[in-house]
Amino acid sequence: MGFKCGIVGLPNVGKSTLFNALTQTAAAQAANYPFCTIEPNVGDVAVPDPRLEKLAAIAKSAQIVPTRITFVDIAGLVRGASKGEGLGNQFLANIREVDAIAHVLRCFENDDIAHVEGRIDPVGDADTVETELMIADLESLERRMVPLEKRAKTGDKEAKQQYELMLKAVTLLREGKPARLAELAAEEVDPFRQLGLLTQKPVLYVCNVGESSAASGNRFSVAVEEKAHRDGAGCVAISARIEEEVAQLRESEREEFLHHLGLEEPGLNRLIRAGYHLLGLITFFTAGPKEARAWTVTRGARAPQAAGVIHTDFEHGFIRAETIAYDDYVALGGEAGARDAGKLRLEGKDYVVQDGDVMHFRFNT
What we know:
By secondary structure, the protein is α/β, with parallel strands linked by helices. It contains 14 helices and twelve strands.
């Protein structure tokens, strides 16, 4: 399990350039005109995690299998998309299919690349897209609430609960705020998610800065960071052009190239970590002679759920999980050392998986 992240934004902000760099393909056409991306391009990339290589070296694994993340490059949006302007209807439909939104914002100045609205204002661009999503959500909810209200007045308990959830979202949207800011009780979280609202999806603002600003950002990205803080969104600054160059280099050349630019790692690494944090995802590992492998679960997942990520039979027949913390596994030289030191734990069905756990599941067939 990873997650599907839709790359969105106005035309000519660098979406397709970023997508090409992330997936190391030329599947998405990067061109200096609106709507160069007509159908959503989909690409899977490995999630970089240096812990996995260390585990493989200790376990003498023949193969390393990272977990993966799916990026979807979605056609550029323009003002009026909620009314079907440009490729609006298709844009909104594609967003509904992703788990999170990576909203690419133009935070660089370049007279050779046209801006669809004739100015560089990333916060304004973000507001344009958010407004279109809020309008779409509001219109959808208002249509759905009419029959629900009638049913609720007849004493239909389920209709009343759903109507009240929708009302929470509508109240926020009418105030110009996204649905993800709704204050929900624990038992309301899943039903609220099932409403399928566009503005409920977690948002990560990706500030596409120029090469000279890749290490420290610039005034545009600072303004976006402030907006992200206000909106409960994530934020990361990346130079799509640098990522494009890095993707074309040999592994041996990348470190020197990044060091020259004052960067410790590719922007992809930071983007994925920000995405993981945004969705509350963590990684656990399995390691042995055959392979060392990374797996993704939602933070708070219990051991049987983690087992189910590997195979549904593991979850159904779960007995217990042999568990070693990553730091203990490395410090003690692997499973045997951890077992001898008493650091291998047998955890049951109620165990909450921790990021970095090295696990082996026992189950009935």
